[in-house]
Write a structure and sequence with these properties.
By secondary structure, the chain is of the alpha/beta class. It has a 7-stranded mixed sheet with strand order 2-10-9-8-5-3-4, sandwiched between helices. The protein is built from 14 helices and 15 strands. It folds into 2 domains: 242 residues, Type I PLP-dependent aspartate aminotransferase-like (Major domain) (Aspartate Aminotransferase, domain 2, 3-Layer(aba) Sandwich); 114 residues, Aspartate Aminotransferase, domain 1, CATH 3.90.1150.10. The model has no long low-confidence stretch (mean pLDDT 97). The radius of gyration is 21 Å and the shape is globular. The two termini are 35 Å apart. The relative contact order is 0.17. Bound molecules: 4'-deoxy-4'-aminopyridoxal-5'-phosphate. The site of 4'-deoxy-4'-aminopyridoxal-5'-phosphate has 13 residues, from helix 3.
Length: 376
């Protein structure tokens, strides 16, 4: 039986990306490796619309968050941590582990973070020299408007801004230099359409300056050590890199850097949302302005979501369930990869069957989803 992976990481990778990893391994201290490294750097610079280079290292997204926490925070730092879900909480927890004092702002799960809420929290907490934000909160499918949030903070009052974009980069605009982010963390296995295992960190000039003035308590995550080799003419990793994943990321970036990619992800999200609502499910994120182009979360007010999930899995569809307070209460379906109408109709048709015959609120769910897909 075919299985359709719809978890928000890992996501399905194309055959081209899979096969790229079968290339023979090369010495990571040679010109060929630096060329591969530079090719990735050029493509990431296009994707992030930034002139700076990106640190790559073997880690999952949590490792990237830890690298930011280790380099920017410590017992002498007070951090303003804004969370709207499980991953915002995780970033906060990691930072607390490094000894930072935390001022928390919590937004209910399913709701987005507004520019006004953050600007006023920054105003009230001038002692916070670091601000933690999550771009795409994967536990709920909320996309926060990081550009507008940062723009709402007067430039002279801006703390160092660290953003968890683990489930954003690749699937939606993320332009850290233009937006004023100082430290951006992401990973390979979601919007970057690459297998899991690669962590990525991008820092602004202000960010690099800040980390150069601190002593990092971690050897492996010390970004200043990474920077020396990153900025050589022939860049290298300080430690052994997962070369096969570099091949994969290089190939995946070609699939992402095509005209209209972000638009396609948005259309897939709107179309799936329209069909899901029409079927009688309830979207977790009520305000469509905060809905993620990468994943959609929904519950079933008039029935048993666990039974739907079980039926989907039995049919070969593999979405994710809820996390934290939402465990057992929602289904999360991802659309990071090249999901178009055939995949959307497969997901909706499978949901219709999983609900049980006759239980769909409307039989027009396909028509509604298609109208949204076609932008009508
Ligand atoms: N932050 C966000 C927003 C995420 O979606 C995830 C993964 N779901 C993480 C952090 C942690 O990443 P990983 O599981 O790769 O450690």
């Amino acid at each position: 039986m075919n299985r359709y992976l719809m978890t928000p990481g890992p996501v399905p990778v194309s055959t081209g990306v899979s096969v790229s990893q079968a290339r023979p391994l090369i010495n990571h201290r040679c010109g060929a490796f630096s060329e591969l490294f530079l090719s990735i750097e050029d493509k990431l610079a296009q994707l992030l619309r930034s002139g700076g280079r990106t640190v790559l290292f073997p880690a999952s997204g949590t490792g990237s968050l830890e690298a930011l926490a280790a380099n920017f925070t410590g017992p002498d730092v007070t951090v303003l941590s804004v969370s709207c879900g499980v991953f915002g909480d995780r970033f906060r927890e990691i930072t607390a582990l490094y000894g930072a004092k935390i001022v928390s702002v919590d937004v209910p799960m399913g709701c987005g973070v507004t520019p006004e809420a953050v600007a006023s929290a920054v105003e009230r907490n001038p002692d916070c020299s670091v601000l933690l934000l999550t771009q795409n909160e994967t536990s709920t499918g909320v996309l926060n408007p990081i550009d507008r949030i940062i723009a709402a903070i007067p430039r002279e009052k801006r703390p160092l801004i660290l953003v968890d974009s683990v489930s954003a980069v690749g699937a939606m605009p993320c332009f850290p230099e233009e937006w004023g982010i100082d430290g951006l963390a992401t990973a390979s296995q979601k919007g970057l359409l690459t297998p899991p295992g690669l962590g990525l960190i991008w820092l602004s000039e202000r960010g690099w300056d800040a980390v150069s003035k601190r002593k990092c308590p971690s050897y492996y995550f010390d970004l200043a050590r990474q920077k020396k080799q990153l900025y050589m003419d022939a860049p290298e990793n300080p430690y052994t890199p997962p070369v096969s994943l570099y091949y994969a990321l290089d190939a995946a970036l070609d699939e992402i850097l095509v005209d209209g990619w972000f638009d396609l992800r948005r259309r897939a999200a709107s179309s799936l949302a329209a069909g899901i609502e029409s079927l009688g499910f309830s979207l977790l994120v009520k305000d469509e302005n905060f809905r993620s182009p990468g994943l959609t979360a929904f519950s079933l007010p008039s029935g048993d979501i666990a039974a739907v999930s079980k039926a989907l899995k039995a049919a070969g569809i593999e979405p994710a369930g809820g996390q934290g307070a939402l465990k057992g209460k929602i289904i999360r379906m991802s659309h990071y990869h090249d999901v178009r109408w055939p995949e959307i109709s497969l997901a909706l048709g499978s949901l219709y069957a999983a609900l049980g015959s006759g239980r769909a609120q409307s039989r027009d769910f396909m028509r509604d989803a298609l109208a949204a897909w076609e932008g009508k």
